[in-house]
Amino acid sequence: MRLIFNILKFFPPEAAHLIALHSLKLIHKIGLINLFFNTSNTSNPYSLDNLIFKNRLGVAAGLDKNGDYIDCLGALGFGFIEVGTVTPIAQAGNPKPRIFRLFKENAIINRLGFNNKGVDHLVKKLESRKYQGVVGVNIGANKNSQGDKRIQDYLECFTKVYELSDYITLNISSPNTPDLRDLHSKENISILLSTISHERDSFKDTKPIFLKISPDESIDTIKEVVSSIKEYNFSGIIISNTTIDKSILEDKSYIDELGGLSGEPLFNISTELIHLIREIDTEIPIIGVGGVIDKASFDKKLEAGADLIQIYTGFIIKGPNIISELLN
Predict the structure, then answer these.
(1) Which of 93, 148, 212, 290 fits 113 for a cystine, CB–CB 3.0-4.6 Å?
(2) Is residue 103 part of a domain?
(3) Active-site residue flag, 173
(4) What angle do CA 258, 122, 129 make, to 5 degrees?
(5) Would you say the pTM of this structure is higher than 0.85?
(6) What is the CATH classification number for the domain harbouring 116?
């Protein structure tokens, strides 16, 4: 299986991604996933915000945008899975090429632009899933939506997935949807959170809601975000999305490439942001993501103050065996 993943490195990034996930789904369907991957000894339950996680390692949003692979990813031993980012209307995303793999730096640059099949497709996948673990849904806005329509996009997705998810994440931090990061501002975030908070109150049960933030915001903005989360009684923060700062790359040929940078170069930035927020608030739940590619980086995220950890680039670069490496 390791040979197959090494061969996939020579395929175009999006083709390799689909081939890998389709192969994983097939292996799971015929009941051979335990033969190919070590899924034992991954149980170490952890409780956060009334949810019981099988362990503290999860799949970050972006790996399974449409919920097509929930069951096979869950069978690998993850403690939780976050699907999305999903938008109300299906959209193709930005023109290709839009993913660049930097294997020597364990990094990826992407400018996908919320490509997904739409929230109604995801709803069907959530309804039919067999995986019994924690599943979160990451929601966003369509590219062409602006102003009040953008807020309504979040609201529509939120309402449709609420009862089918264990927690919901508001993605306000992708650098690939124009002006989306403007939602970090005090005025804009108040409008978004108050709208979602009002809708949440219409449901009988209260589920955790997280905010996924950018690593490129000022300290003052981060403080305002934390204050807003507490004001509207949201659960916590996912730290962080990709960075637009390419100066941290050793390979300077990519310094002007548009898109968000993830993987090992992001580790220090995102982990320092966890430290910062822990200084602001010692109790707010934090899901740490960004640059976890081995056991040492996994442990450092936890030591910085993260309650749970997600991986994306590490999984793509190293394959499913990274799960047992991090957890055992």
Answers:
(1) 93
(2) yes
(3) no
(4) 125
(5) yes
(6) 3.20.20.70
Phi, psi torsion values for 309, nearest 5 degrees? -125, 140
| Residue 9, domain member (yes or no) | no
- Would you say the C-alpha torsion 103, 290, 327, 58 has a positive or negative sign? negative
pLDDT tens-digit readout, 266-291: 999 999 999 999 999 999 999 999 99
Closest to 150 (Cα-Cα) out of 122, 178, 175, 176: 178
Cβ neighbors of 238 (< 8 A, separation 6 or more) are 169, 210, 211, 212, 213, 286, 287, 289, 310
Higher pLDDT, 269 or 2: 269
Sheet of 260-263: strand order equals 99-102, 107-110, 260-263
* Number of domains composing the chain: 1
Q: Please list the alpha-helical segments (H only) found in the chain.
A: 2-8, 13-29, 33-36, 70-74, 119-128, 147-161, 186-200, 219-231, 267-280, 295-304, 313-318, 322-327
Query: One-letter amino acid identity for 285?
Result: P
Q: Which residues contact 252 (CB under 8 A, 6 or more apart)?
A: none
Report pLDDT for 5: 64
Which one of the listed residues 174, 235, 262, 297 is annotated catalytic?
174
Q: Is 264 a member of any domain?
A: yes
Domain-located, residue 52 = yes
In whole angstroms, give the CA distance from residue 311 to residue 288.
9
